[in-house]
Design goal:
alpha/beta, about 15% strand, six-stranded parallel β-sheet, about 50% helix, Arc Repressor Mutant, subunit A, about 240 residues, 2 domains
Length: about 240
């Protein structure tokens, strides 16, 4: 975190006007501060070594070294150990970029956001991934994750492996797959946010998953959630 608890953000986009606009928008928020800008994935990784951002807002498609390249390096164990800090990646995408988004998900991106999203959603997404949560744009999350999970080369768990989960862990997984953050899942199930975090951790451990994004993709692959489903009714 930066001064006064600000979230440090690096912006990577190959189009200077877009990059400048994103940086201006983020900098306008009291709790966010832009600590650098890059025009490609290689520069983003190199700049992150010195700027030490909490979050990199990154275009998935850039000439040469793209967002997938950068994500793979930024979340690698070698980078984290060498730099002694962790960086979350919020990937900017479009409707027709499914392949790149799937690659970015595998690489370890924490969130996916449409490039034409509302300014408030961008800043909220930055805050969520900085706090360690996944951010899945509600407009595209179901389609992207459902397609990712159905790919033949997916190594995600199969339906039979879900039997390892308790009923409550399954409920938490389903709500996470609908894009709900921990606080909303807690309100939905009338339990504490700390309890939700415990359930999410157990889901990842039992299913041998790396992060929340993989858990969400698993929910689609195993049929717990379908692209056109609505979230279950709240308890009470």
């Amino acid at each position: 975190m930066g001064d006064h608890g600000q979230i440090r953000v690096l912006v990577a986009d190959d189009e200077p006007p877009v990059r400048a606009g994103l940086a201006m928008l983020i900098d306008s928020e009291d709790d966010l501060v832009v600590v650098g800008q890059a025009g490609n994935g290689f520069d983003a990784v190199e700049l992150a070594r010195t700027a030490r951002p909490d979050v990199v807002v990154m275009d998935v498609r850039m000439p040469g070294s793209d967002g997938v390249y950068a994500t793979r390096h930024l979340v690698s164990e070698e980078f984290v150990v060498d730099q002694a800090f962790t960086t979350a990646v919020l990937m900017l995408t479009t409707f027709n970029d499914d392949t790149a988004v799937h690659d970015a998900l595998r690489a370890g991106a924490s969130g996916f956001l449409l490039k034409n999203t509302a300014p408030s959603a961008l800043c909220d997404a930055v805050r969520h991934v900085a706090a360690g949560h996944a951010w899945l744009d509600p407009v595209v999350a179901r389609r992207l994750l459902a397609e990712f999970a159905s790919r033949p080369d997916s190594v995600l768990p199969v339906p039979a492996e879900l039997a390892r989960l308790t009923l409550r862990e399954t409920e938490v997984l389903i709500l996470a797959a609908h894009g709900l953050p921990n606080a909303e899942i807690a309100a939905h199930l009338v339990i504490s946010e700390a309890t939700v975090k415990t359930h999410v951790s157990r889901v990842l451990t039992k299913l041998d998953l790396r992060d929340r994004s993989q858990a969400v993709a698993t929910a689609y692959k195993c049929g717990l959630v379908h692209p056109d489903d609505r979230p279950p009714h709240r308890a009470g």
